[in-house]
Design goal:
Strand order of the largest sheet: 5-6-13-12-8-9-10-11-7
Structural class: alpha/beta
Radius of gyration: 27 Å
Low-confidence stretches: 88-118
CATH superfamily of the largest domain: Phosphoenolpyruvate-binding domains
Shape: globular
Length: about 650
């Protein structure tokens, strides 16, 4: 069984999406391969999959052979056609941390520079923005070397077992790290990817081959890791080049276990110190006391390395890729770094120290200034409250939203709950998820979008037809109304969850009033069933996403049928501009500020105001400070965005009210 498709996974199968893909493939008994440009690799090997360098918009073939081949191919094709595959647990605005990393400018070439003031600077890669100055904390663990002893024939089996035990111990350590409550979702994804590398057949198979030829285990690990890392370095892709560092880091951890040694600990790093290293493993950095680290400077690594991703996710300035020049920092007492420009200054003079201290204080002041808006309830000048809510797709994102000061949830993407499982989630499973969400944000409202699945992001358990243009096909509310067996389970779960908080339900892809009236009839039917069964439930407000031109044009009539509107600017923009938002060739047309799109937003707002219903926005544009005044001026009273944008949005609204 085989089937070809165009990959829609954002930025392709880099580490975390590849890890998820492999996990999905391993759930099937069949042998599964992924084929690109005539080259086939096992879909159950993270390393081989990443080395295949599958990028977004490339054509691939999924091939399976076994009892569940059909199910395997359908599930894996569905994964590849989902732009958000593997990114649902990532924090950050406008996509995951890795996606953001991949979108950065090309890396700078390390070089010495001398600014106008004559202060010598080392130039590296600007990997995480921000400035820092502090005492240097040199972290240069000794390089591991194998004993180079040739094994006797009767020693080989024992050495293989010793290697396997070391891999198991490294995995166990990583499992303990993954179980820690203080690990962020982004860091957890990185550690999980490293764990997969540790046990990947590409690495373990090569090590065992070398051992069988007489190499001791340590030498074999070093040799195998070097070979695989070289393969990653040879790929024409910045992100995959950075995976070479991950392979070396995993190999080092295995070698340390084999040698009975512990890695030099970072636990003693002083508050505000600048971590200096030739290289540091992502796992080591993820476990370090990150709140004490003032900045990171490394000889290796780049803007797409996992070190950079972790640093950015925790707001730690970082300059990487210094090469051999990092050795100039080994004996430094103090270091200043500019993560925006990629500059590092060794033992800065008084003038430079004062300049950096001032800049650090200004940045700290700005962050503190935003934090005070966490608990602020922003209002318009007339006193009308503007709800600043969060867009989330899983319960794991609740904490980040609460920490940012979210006034509820303006968009909960239920499709991610469906995508996580091999089978359709049960009513009980859905009810438990929605109830937890409602309880977490009570008394604020939680707007749950009903299943928004179509041919561009299918799920296991629903067979979708092949469509020339799935964005204009059988998706969203259209599919749900045609499959009441699926839709009613979700509606029943939402009615049950409404007992525990302020649940509101939003329908996606609405283009005619009949879709609303048919849904309401199903809601009434579900409520009657629950009552007859003696199951506790409550009612909820029903609203629609405004994301089709049709919905905009019938907005006055729609407003009489629902309790609220929420404008989805991402799809609304692509539909109004007739420009696929996944097509880089027409990317310039996908601009929410285009007069046509802004007019559609204003028409929607006016229709909602005339009917006396709430009008909000849950597209990415809702978090843009430059557009928020215009949206509020149109009458929007709710803006939902990524948690990272919430405090800045609140500040923008407060400033507007103060000006008047």
């Amino acid at each position: 069984m085989e089937r070809s498709t165009i990959v829609r996974v954002h930025e392709g199968l880099h580490a975390r999406p590849a890890t998820r893909f492999v996990k999905l493939a391993k759930g099937f008994e069949s042998e599964v391969e992924l084929v690109k440009d005539g080259k086939a690799v096992s879909a159950k090997s993270s390393v081989k999959l990443m080395l295949l360098a599958v990028k977004e918009n490339q054509e691939v073939t999924v091939r399976a052979n076994g009892a569940d081949a059909i199910e395997a191919v359908e599930a894996l094709i569905g994964y590849l056609e989902n732009p958000r595959a593997g990114l649902d647990d990532e924090a950050g605005e406008g996509g995951g941390l890795e996606a953001a990393a991949a979108a950065l400018a090309p890396e700078a070439t390390p070089a010495d520079t001398a600014p106008a003031d004559g202060t010598p600077k080392l130039q590296g890669v600007a990997a995480s923005e921000g400035v820092a100055i502090g005492p240097a904390f040199a972290h240069f663990p000794a390089e591991i070397e194998g004993p180079g002893r040739r094994l006797q024939a009767d020693e080989i089996d024992g050495e293989v077992e010793r290697f396997r035990a070391a891999v198991a111990q490294v995995q166990a350590r990583m499992d303990r790290t993954l179980a820690e409550d203080n690990l962020s979702a982004g860091d957890r994804g990185i550690v999980a990817a490293l764990r997969d590398i540790a046990a990947d057949d590409s690495l373990t198979g090569e090590v065992e081959r070398l051992i069988s030829e007489g190499d001791d285990a340590v030498s074999a690990v070093i040799g195998a890791a070097s070979t695989i890392a070289a393969d990653f370095s040879a790929v024409d892709d910045h992100y995959l080049n950075a995976r070479a560092d991950d392979v070396h880091a995993v190999g080092r951890q295995i070698c340390l276990v084999l040698l009975g040694q512990d890695e030099v600990s970072l636990e003693t790093i002083p508050q505000g110190a600048i971590l200096i290293a030739d290289d540091i493993g992502a796992w080591d950095l993820a476990r370090a006391p990150l709140k004490r680290i003032g900045g990171v400077v490394c000889g290796h690594g780049g803007a797409t390395s996992h070190i950079a991703i972790i640093a950015r996710s925790h707001g730690i300035p970082a300059v990487l890729g210094l090469g051999d020049k990092v050795n100039q920092l080994r004996t430094a007492k103090e270091v200043a770094l500019d993560g925006n420009a990629g500059h590092v200054i060794v033992d800065p003079d008084e003038t430079t120290r004062s300049d950096f201290t001032r800049r650090v204080e200004a940045a700290t002041h700005e962050r503190a200034g935003l934090k005070i808006f966490k608990g602020v309830t922003p209002t318009r000048a007339d006193g009308t409250v503007i709800e600043v809510a969060a867009n989330i797709g899983s319960l794991e994102e609740i904490e980040a939203a609460q920490e940012a000061g979210a006034m509820g949830v303006g968009l909960f993407r239920t499709e991610l709950l469906f995508m996580r499982h091999m089978h359709l989630p049960s009513e009980d499973m859905q009810a438990e998820t929605y109830s937890a969400l409602a309880k977490a944000f009570a008394p604020h409202s939680v707007i749950v979008r009903t299943l928004d699945i179509g041919g561009d992001k299918p799920i296991a358990g629903i067979e979708f037809p092949d469509e020339e243009n799935p964005f204009l096909g059988w998706r969203g509310i259209r599919m749900c109304l045609d499959r009441p067996d699926i839709f009613k389970k979700q509606l029943r779960a939402l009615l049950r969850a409404a007992v525990h908080g302020n649940i509101k339900v939003m329908l996606p892809m609405v283009s005619e009033i009949a879709e609303v009236t048919r849904t309401r009839a199903l809601v009434d039917e579900c409520a009657a069933e629950l009552k007859a069964e003696g199951v506790e439930h409550s009612s909820f407000d029903l609203g629609v996403m405004i994301e089709t031109p049709a919905a905009v044009l019938i907005a006055p009539a729609l407003a009489k049928e629902v309790a609220f509107f929420s404008i989805g600017t991402n799809d609304l923009t692509q539909y109004i501009m007739a420009a696929d938002r996944l097509n880089p060739t027409v990317a310039k047309l996908n601009d929410v500020t285009n007069p046509a799109v802004m007019s559609a937003i204003e028409l929607t707002a006016k229709a909602g105001a005339a009917a006396g219903i709430m009008v909000g926005m849950c597209g990415e544009a809702a978090g843009r400070p430059d557009l928020i005044p215009a949206f509020i001026g149109m009458g929007l009273t709710e803006l939902s965005m990524s948690p990272a944008s919430i405090q800045r949005a609140k500040k923008t609204i407060a400033a507007m009210a103060a000006e008047r």
